[in-house]
Amino acid sequence: MAEKFSEEFLNAFVDNELDAEEKSRAYLAMQQDDALSRQVCELRSLQDLVRLAYRDVPPPPSRQRVRGLKLNAIAAGLALVVGVAIGWVLRTPPPTVPMLTATAPAATAEQMKVLIHISDGRREHLKGALDEIENLARFYRSAGQNARIEVVTNGDGINLLRADTSPYAARIAQLQRDYDNLVFEACQNTLDSLRNERAITARLLPGVTVIDSGVAQIMRRQTQGWAYIQV
Amino acid sequence: MTSGRRRFLATLLLAAATACAAADVQKVVYHVGMDELPAQKFALRNIQNHIDAVGSKNIDLRMVVAGDGVTLLQRARNDENLKAAIDSLKLLGVKVLVCQTTLAARKLDFKKDLYDVAAADLVPNGVAEIARLQMRGYAYVKP
What we know:
The structure holds two protein chains of two kinds.
Chain A: H1 7-14, H2 20-32, H3 34-55, H4 64-91, E1 112-118, H5 123-142, E2 147-153, H6 169-178, E3 182-187, H7 188-198, E4 209-211, H8 214-223, E5 227-230
Parallel strand pairs in A: 1-2, 1-5, 2-3, 3-4
Helix pairs in contact in A: 1-3, 2-3, 3-4
Chain B: H1 3-8, H2 13-22, E1 26-32, H3 37-54, E2 59-65, H4 71-75, H5 80-91, E3 95-99, H6 100-105, H7 110-113, E4 122-123, H8 126-135, E5 139-141
Parallel strand pairs in B: 1-2, 1-5, 2-3, 3-4
């Protein structure tokens, strides 16, 4: 049975104000409850409408009151547009509202959070992966984009970060120096199986973080709104 | 946004409900980053099957070609089967996006060296484009 949530909770969810644990609960419940997921979708669309309305309005001279008044005007205007749109929708079969396709917020304002997953440990593959990571970090820096990049390695991908096997230790050290928004992580489960199955006690390169589980980290980060890319 | 404002705007919920009808469209980004021809063919078939399964009207599918994956578009210049497969996907609405960082690193000219790529198909960085699309609600598939 899906959990029930208050309106406040759902609003906070849509506004991305919940912590990771609360968000996971919300996602879980939405999976089990179609009505809930429809409700969240409606709240999201409403938020998009409001954002769209704000986007085309120049900033008001004085803060609180004028904003409220403007919002009234915007809402009235929107209500009119919506009314017309609904009328239109009712008389033509395909219910597409073109206005709603243009609601993407400006990308530079938000922080980009990107998890890069490496599970292939072949030398030439690791080189390509490092190229992609470096290009991405450089791209964000040159674009002035606030970003965090987390590189998760598991399985053979951990070869990249093992002091005894990494073909690119110096390059990783350089990347760590150049980009303080870039972290490298190794999966504890993989380290355990190296020890238990192959009697290898792997030492890691300096500055590498150990996480409990690569796949768990990937799931955790995705529910926290991170993008996920496998290289 | 305060809850007061939101309550005031609740009159617009009807419009939001209309918008949710369009949310049934699947948004998905496929990542083509591998060099091996069989894997590239497999990816194209994957995408074709995906569209066949849900119907081209119900899907917004972007294919981001980056890194080693760019060899797919190089090979397609001289491979009729690859051409046909790519043409077919494009006719079904697939947008093929190509990583400019990769082209610069490999000194490739999109007009001369790649099959059917226009300036509008170029993105500054393929991985960043995939991340950006995910932030906009696209699901990620790496075939």
